[in-house]
Amino acid sequence: MSVKGFDIAIVGGGVIGLALARTLVREGARVAVFDAAEAGGGAIPSASHAAAGMLAPSFEYGELPAALSQALYRFGARGLALWREYAAALEEETGLFIDYRPDGMLAVAYGENDSAPLEVQASMVSALGGAAKMISGDEARVLEPALSEAVIAALHAPQDAQVDPRRLVKALKASLAEKKTPSFAVRLARVDRKDAGYELVGANGERFEADKVVLAAGAVSGLVPMGLVYPVKGAAVAIAVKDGLLSRVVRAPGAYLCPKADGRLVIGATEEIGRDDLEVEPAAVTGLRTNGVKAVPALAGAPEIERWAGLRPGTPDGAPILGQDGEGRFLALGHYRNGILHAPAAAEAMAALILGREAPVDIAPFGLGRFGPAQHG
């Protein structure tokens, strides 16, 4: 089989690839999406399916070298700023509810060892114009009465938000389907230059052609330049809770708690660098639930709904890879645990780059060249 006629082929069916496809289609481009996760045969689902959906730039700043850390915060803040309008437009377009919740976020502390880094985080975020401040344990319990008396302080980020990733993926796919954008359930073996464009070759010999290619695949695609994206396994569990137990995301040492509209509370997530399996080990779930109960005692004994694992796409420095490689392929890779947060900003920035326009947010710090000339070439 040989299929021609696409302006842009997007390799990757997670939120980043789907959001970029939607933006490009709305600009009139002929786009095709290649989703290995739909191909079967043991393909790994996208990290988007396993994510909790936190939109939290306030908690991602400060872990990297200063300049890159500030760039990552600003990029995440741009994503967060776009999300309210993005969610409303997507829900109106598709008629599908994605459970976008701009309720803010709390990160709780049990002692000075927990609160000291939160105080530094709040100070740095505030210096960059973000809304983050430390509050007392009592003030935190006013916001979330179910919090344990052991909580002595918390970082409150009132502008942070969350969305349901599974509902989001469904809505993005519905948007593309309505525009008759083709999606191929194909695991690609390689992407080669051909004439002025590219040939994409599937593992079973399928062949496709496109003028431009975007690599937006996950941690184990095999197509990432120089192996710069690697898996970071994370396990999570969903439990059933009474309505209104928590009104916002609570981050605690060893766990985060994300309430969803359907009565689920997602507790996540472990981190295991280099693991590429989806086995959910009982000890991981036990640890998450124990840490969750320490923060919110009422979670003890709550019935489990499901447990799962996913593979975050990590990079050597923890920041995404955005731009082009030495072969002219566009890259939207390695968003680690922030793909949902970054999606609107990555879509607008990469679409501008692909279409030859000025991007509304600077993505130069995330270029492939930061890893050295060998990787860029």
Helix residue percentage: 25-40%
The major beta sheet can be summarized as:
9 strands, mixed
Radius of gyration: 21 Å
Separation of termini? 31 Å
Number of strands: 19
CATH superfamily of the largest domain: FAD/NAD(P)-binding domain
By CATH reckoning, the class of the largest domain would read: Alpha Beta
Please state the overall shape, judged from the principal axes of the Cα atoms: globular
The CATH architecture term of the largest domain is 3-Layer(bba) Sandwich
Total number of helices? 9
* Overall number of structural domains: 3
Poorly predicted ranges: none
Strand percentage lies at 25-35%
Organism: Hyphococcus luteus
Domain FAD dependent oxidoreductase: 7-353
Keywords: Oxidoreductase, Thiamine biosynthesis
Pathway: Cofactor biosynthesis; thiamine diphosphate biosynthesis
Tell me what the structure shows.
Residues 7-353 form the FAD dependent oxidoreductase domain. This is Glycine oxidase ThiO. Keywords: Oxidoreductase, Thiamine biosynthesis. GO terms for molecular function: flavin adenine dinucleotide binding; oxidoreductase activity. By secondary structure, this protein is an alpha+beta fold. It is 31% helix and 27% strand. The protein has 3 domains: 2-50 and 166-229 and 317-376, FAD/NAD(P)-binding domain, CATH 3.50.50.60; 105-158, no CATH class; 230-314, D-Amino Acid Oxidase, Chain A, domain 2, CATH 3.30.9. The chain is built from 9 helices and 19 strands. Strands 4, 5, 6, 12, 13, 14, 15, 16 and 17 form a 9-stranded mixed β-sheet that branches. Strands 1, 2, 8, 9, 10, 11, 18 and 19 form an 8-stranded mixed β-sheet that branches. Helix 1 (15-26) links the parallel strand 1 and strand 2. Helix 3 crosses helix 8 (339-354). The longest helix has 29 residues, at 66-94. The radius of gyration is 21 Å and the shape is globular. It starts with a strand and ends with a helix.
